[in-house]
Write a structure and sequence with these properties.
The complex is a heterodimer of chains A (119) and B (107). In chain A, 0% of the residues lie in helices and 50% in strands. Chain A is mostly beta strands and 119 residues long. Chain B contains no helices and eleven strands. In chain B, 0% of the residues lie in helices and 50% in strands. Classes of the chains: A mainly beta (119), B mainly beta (107).
C-alpha cells in the first residue's frame, strides 16, 4: 500500500517561499501509472487543487496560482516537491500531497501539513 | 474553470437513515466525478470515482450515480462512522475543482 508523507516548515514569513516535500513509500513514482498532486485546505474551508506532476516532469498548475507555483519530482528519492513564492496570509492552509489514479481521482493522500504564513 | 455546487451544505440525519447528497457541475463533465469523505483533522478519503465506481475497501452502503452535470452520492443506511464532511470533485479537465462540501451531522 503506497503511503505519502509531507514535510517542510510549518511557519513561513510573508513574501517568502513555501517549500514542501512529499515522500512516497510502498510504490515507485516512476511507475508511470499515476500523476502526483498538491492540494490545500484553509482552516474550516474547502479543498483547492494546486497542481500535478508526472514522473517525467510534465506539470499542470491551477491558473489561480500558476505564476507562483513550481512542482518538481526527484525520482531517485521517490519524492515530489512544491514551491509557492511570494506567500501571504491567504496561503495559510493544510497542504496535502496525493496520488492521482486513472479518471484523475485522488486515491491516496498524505496526512497533511499545516503551514502558517506569519511574520 | 468548472464550478461544482453541492447541496445541501449541511444535513442532520439519524443512524439508519438513507441520505442523498447532490453535486451539480457548471458544464457537462461526462462521468468525471469523484466523491470524498473527510473527518476532522484527517485527509479526505476517496469513496466513489468515475461517478459510480466504488473505491476498494469502501462499504457497499455508499453509492454514486449521475452523468453530465448532475450527480448524487447516496448512503443507504447511515452508520455512526459516516458522520463527516463529503466533497465532490470533477476530474474532466484541469484545474480540478471541488464542491464546497456537505457536512453530515447527527440528529
Amino acid at each position: 500500500q503506497v503511503q505519502l508523507q509531507e514535510s517542510g516548515p510549518g511557519l513561513v514569513k510573508p513574501s517568502q517561499t513555501l517549500s514542501l516535500t512529499c515522500n512516497v513509500s510502498g510504490g515507485s513514482i516512476s511507475s508511470g501509472s499515476y500523476y502526483w498532486s498538491w492540494i490545500r485546505q484553509p482552516a474550516g474551508k474547502g479543498l483547492e487543487w494546486i497542481g500535478r506532476i508526472y514522473f517525467s516532469g510534465i506539470t499542470n498548475y491551477n491558473p489561480s496560482l500558476k505564476s507562483r507555483v513550481t512542482i518538481s519530482v526527484d525520482t531517485s528519492k521517490n519524492q515530489f516537491s512544491l514551491k509557492l513564492s511570494s506567500v501571504t496570509a491567504a496561503d495559510t492552509a493544510v497542504y496535502y500531497c496525493a496520488r492521482v489514479k486513472n479518471i484523475y481521482a485522488f486515491d491516496n493522500w498524505g496526512q497533511g501539513t499545516m503551514v502558517t504564513v506569519s511574520s | 474553470d468548472i464550478q461544482m455546487t453541492q447541496s445541501p451544505s449541511s444535513l442532520s440525519a439519524s443512524v439508519g437513515d438513507r441520505v442523498t447528497i447532490t453535486c451539480r457541475a457548471s458544464q457537462s463533465i461526462s462521468s468525471y466525478l469523484n466523491w470524498y469523505q473527510q473527518k476532522p483533522g484527517k485527509a479526505p478519503k476517496l469513496l466513489i470515482y468515475a461517478a459510480s465506481s466504488l473505491e476498494s475497501g469502501v462499504p457497499s452502503r455508499f453509492s454514486g450515480s449521475g452523468s453530465g452535470t448532475d450527480f448524487t452520492l447516496t448512503i443507504s443506511s447511515l452508520q455512526p462512522e459516516d458522520f463527516a464532511t463529503y466533497y465532490c470533485q470533477e476530474s474532466s479537465r484541469t484545474p480540478y475543482t471541488f464542491g464546497q462540501g456537505t457536512k453530515l451531522e447527527i440528529k
